[in-house]
Amino acid sequence: MKPLLLPLLLVLATAARADDDPQAGQARAALCMACHGADGYSSIPQFPHLAGQGASYLLKQLQEIRTSNGGADAGRPVPAMQGLLEPLDSQALAGLADWFARQPLRPVPDRAADPAGARLYLQGDLERHIPACSACHGPQATGNDPARFPRLAGQPAAYTLKQLQDFRSGLRHNDLPGRMMQDIASRLTPADMETLARYLESLP
Ligand code: HEC
Ligand code: HEC
After folding, report:
1. Could you tell me if 72 and 137 lie in one domain?
2. Are residues 41 and 120 in the same domain?
3. Among 57, 59, 66, 183, which one is most buried in terms of CB atoms within 10 A?
4. Backbone φ and ψ of 149, nearest 5°
5. Alpha helices, H only, the chain
6. Claim to verify: residue 8 and residue 94 sit in the same structural domain
């Protein structure tokens, strides 16, 4: 992480001056670039893409990550973002969420979708009480932001896999009310999770 520090400190100096005009979201987004990319596309598979993700979902995550890192348990600790969100108020977080949500999606290289992943994603598995993921995340995995169901399409497989593992272990438990993702993840095998993560990465 060391080589990332210098550019991070440089942008910190400029972003701290941003006030709440429409440009403020963009100025503050510079704080996030080192990990989430200049246009919301991370180049490291453990870091999620934020471009085109739903604004309400993003805001919910930012609020919960800020609170979880601050010591209270809001169900989503992200040590890599420790300290970064603390100085920002809710309006600043909303500005960031809006800015990233508005960044255009990139076309994904044409990869063959894995049929086993497609089946589980679109149909679930009745015998194992696994609902179709598409019921909430949409048939193309583009999400449903008013319900704060996130877009999953195109997300790096390593990131998606870690989220499913974290829901299963309970490390991530911000899927309230109803614990829907913890419940579902508890029924998935490690092989299911990998297949689903690879399938989702292949979607445009
Ligand atoms: C040092 C690296 C780093 C920096 C800087 C950083 N993040 Fe993150 N961010 C991460 C990692 C790693 C995760 C995923 C953590 C996990 O596995 O759950 C993450 C997750 C997120 C998520 C959740 C996305 C999702 O799909 O659920 C949001 C939203 C987010 N970051 C926004 C931001 C914003 C806005 C900034 C700038 C203010 C920022 N991050 C700065 C590393 C970083
Ligand atoms: C009943 C609705 C529902 C179903 C069915 C469902 N999900 Fe989710 N999922 C959610 C909600 C809600 C969240 C966001 C929780 C939060 O606010 O952090 C979520 C979050 C996720 C995330 C984290 C995304 C990110 O950017 O961090 C992944 C990955 C995911 N779901 C995968 C799946 C898979 C794979 C399936 C099918 C096996 C599935 N989901 C089925 C509701 C659902």
Report:
1. no
2. no
3. 66
4. -90, 120
5. 2-15, 24-29, 33-36, 55-69, 90-102, 115-123, 134-137, 157-169, 180-185, 190-201
6. yes
36-55: pLDDT as tens digits? 999 999 999 999 999 999 99
68 and 139 housed in the same domain: no
Structural domain span for residue 127: 115-201
- Which of 75, 102, 129 is the endpoint of a domain? 102
Q: Whose CA is nearest to atom 11 of ligand 1?
A: 47
How confident is the model over 166-188, as pLDDT tens digits?
A: 999 999 999 988 999 999 999 99
Q: Name 201's Cβ contacts closer than 8 Å, sequence gap at least 6.
A: 111, 154, 155, 156, 157, 160
Q: Supply the pTM of this predicted model.
A: 0.91
Distance of CA 5 to the CA centre of its chain: 22
- Name residue 192's amino acid: D
Query: For ligand 1, is residue 61 a contact (CB within 6 Å)?
Result: yes
* CB-ligand 1 contact for 48 (6 Å cutoff): yes
Q: Whose CA is nearest to atom 15 of ligand 2?
A: 175
Domain count, the chain: 2
DSSP state, residue 149: B
